[in-house]
Amino acid sequence: MVSLPVHQSSITYLYLTFDTYIPSLPGPETEPPLYLAPYASPFEWSKTRKGFTLWLSCIAHIITSYAVGSYSPSTRAMAEEWHVSEVNILLGITTYCIGFAIAPMVFAPLSEINGRYPVLLGAGVVFVSSQFCCATTGSYFGILFWRFWTGVGSSVFSTVVGGVVSDLYQEEDRSAPMALFAGASTFGMGLGPLISGLFTNWRWAFWIQFIMCGLLVAVFAVFFKETRGSILLSRKAQFLNRHYEDCEQAGYFARVRIRWKVQTDEDRQSMAKMLRISICRPFRKSCTFCHSIADISTRSSLY
After folding, report:
1. Cβ count within 10 A of residue 213
2. 3-class secondary-structure state, position 36
3. Lowest CB count within 10 Å: 76, 170, 180, 231, which one?
4. Beta bridge partners of 260
């Protein structure tokens, strides 16, 4: 370690990866080593930590799938209370599906840029709030409106969880976790009508969901840790750079002043472009698929 004025030593920027060797950091000899475990790659987490995160994500998927089928058994009671037909009440399933289809186009890019944790937690708050409003609404149009927002909140747990699985496991190890994720969806959808059909008061079907969703969000807020590798790597670079700056301000300078940067931060597209791709690509692929099917049918008819 040499004492050099800051202005006599230029900063060297290096790219940081999870495998990058971190040289000894400048600072007093008595300073303890930096604790970098929170920024480790999710691929390197212990089996226990991976398993807990996977099961927690799948339980969240079960609860959101439960919300899909729990609505139907209450339609007759709601129709009698608001003096509308059951067909009109079933429109709440349609509004739910609309919210469920639209929200991932926005939240999926957000989870890539800002991480899984804030997106899942924010969606959970929307999910809990909308379930409370469904349980307390006093009008037919209110239930349709809040069912839309229920679909918005639940869609994130059903779509981003797949991304969580890919964050935790390498491609050759994803078969069993993805099977568990798929099974959670089927189990939750079957569980919804079974439990909701037990209540004569339709509001309790939503109160039960509100309680389950509230517990889920509380557990997520406390125990779920960020799994997006690029986000953890960016945080690690920021943490190391802040430490270097603090040491230099204290008067400790290395022979080569290092700062870290992350390749994915530089390659990341703008939020507007990612949203445009996320929204336009499903429609473009759907149209291309329909055109391909029509072309195949036309050729088949010629033979």
Report:
1. 28
2. coil
3. 170
4. 14
The tokens for 182 are 């798929």
- Paired with 14 in beta bridges are 260
Alpha-carbon distances, residue 210 vs 159, 189, 215, 249, 292 (angstroms):
21, 17, 9, 51, 44
Nearest to 258 by CA among 274, 272, 237, 286: 237
d(CA 37, CA 43): 13
Taking the C-alpha atoms of residue 247 and residue 239, their distance in angstroms, rounded to an integer, is 12
CA–CA distance, 181 with 184 (Å, rounded to integer): 5
Residues in the chain: 303
pLDDT higher than 90, residue 132: yes
CATH code assigned to 45-223: 1.20.1250.20
Within 10 angstroms of residue 220's Cβ, the number of other Cβ atoms is 19
pTM, 2 dp: 0.81
Start-end of CATH 1.20.1250.20 domains in the chain: 45-223
- Nearest-angstrom CA–CA distance, 121 and 160: 12
Q: Give the range among 115-124, 125-134, 231-240, 280-289 with minimum mean pLDDT.
A: 280-289
